[in-house]
Amino acid sequence: MKKVPLTGAGLFGKSAVTTRQRLLNVYAEQRPDGDKTGLALYGTPGLTALSNVAYLQPFRALLGLPAFMYAIIGGTLQQIDITGNTINQYGYGPPGFTGTTFCSMAASATQLLIVDPTLGAFVFTPSTGLINPVTPFPPAASNTCTFCAGFFVADNAGTNQFYVSNYLDATSWGVNPVGIDVGYAVQYGDTIVAVDALTSNLIILCAGHTEFWQVVGSAGNPFACVLSATSEYGLAAISSRAHIAGNLCYLALNRQGTVQVVAINGYTTTPISDPDLDNVLNKIGYWSDMTAISYVVDSHPMYQLTSPSASRSFLYDFSTSLWTEVQSGITGAYAQRHRAVLSTAFQGKTIVSVAEIPAPLHYIDPTSYVDGYAFTYPFAANTQLREIVTRHASQDFNVFSIDEVYLDFETGVGLVSGQGSVPTVTIECSKDNGRTWTMPVAAGIGPLGGYLYRAVWRRFGSARDFVFRIRMSDPVKFVVTGGAITVRERKQ
Length: 492
Known about the structure:
CATH class of the largest domain: Mainly Beta
Oligomer: single chain
Number of helices: 1
CATH architecture of the largest domain: 7 Propeller
Mean pLDDT: 91
Helix content: under 10%
């Protein structure tokens, strides 16, 4: 027998003949000890509802602080605890306001700044429970804000200007919006899309480039541009930004007019998407609605990018530098998006909002094998489909036969009752480079405690090239350590 070529670094994009690989709701883990395998495959975490509270409008922003999590829903600021329940609610918009545009929040130890592209800027003071508009606030409209080195910063939408507050004071932004506390992104002739911060650097993300600014303590604007650090990557989607493992990741627009996913670390901007993903993203063509979340599971820092318009979600693992795919539920199409929209870290959990409304807040849960709940209570579970499409198996382009395929799963993981009590895995075979597939054939991986079960399939016939597609939809633990095939070769 020889090893099954389970996966490498490929993502199906440009050509099935080159690679038809796919990991869906599965991520890879390199084993430095090389015990049973050097590369194990695990199911991605599921989602678990924080509570039974179904919010009736979409979340426009999420921000976790030590004591509470803050969310913007409609024209209200919601103060939410770790159980997912709203403790206090502060209205800042007109009664009945139901806006859905994403907002931005930034916090110091004593203040929370809200930048709402529709309603303006507001400051919430947790110690007093008061929320007030920022008056005067220089920008006519802002899309984003951040807190960097003791200063609040906001963009002036549609211009190359950004505004800086007084030190530790989001209520005071200077009296002359033309000359005081104003910065200008002038390295290239485009406009600012968003402001962000990474460690002590203020990052100005423009349509066609990115600038890095540092505090220098000068009068007026305390920041100065680090000219030599300017990057020729612009921001293609405001909400594609996510912080993970000391990096700021986002969907970038390069000088050639195509998109790539990049990561900023220090002053360095590095593309992290591969040619196959770049091909998929650029075929989508519409990028401004893309969103991103980030989380860590067992030392795997994950960046997840979603395209609502294309209904696709992609996951990047910083520990392996591999891209995989994620989705919620089962579809007759090739793919559909993952439910998560916004995320924030709060009291040891990664909290996420989901696309469907009404729905509760959820959290990333490695012990959950479904993607949470949605719609009315009692909520219906969203299935997690696991899929592995292998690398091409060939024998120097000679015709050969595969008599048996064995996959080494973690067995005996069945549930006590219901779906998953007798978990099964299906396999399909393609002999035309992954273009068409045989009918799926099932094999069991054992009820609870059935540790001696083996996933074995036989009689796949002859071909010059084989690709296998392995799937499981039961809500149980998913671990694959490897596999093997029995080969008989006939030279031609």
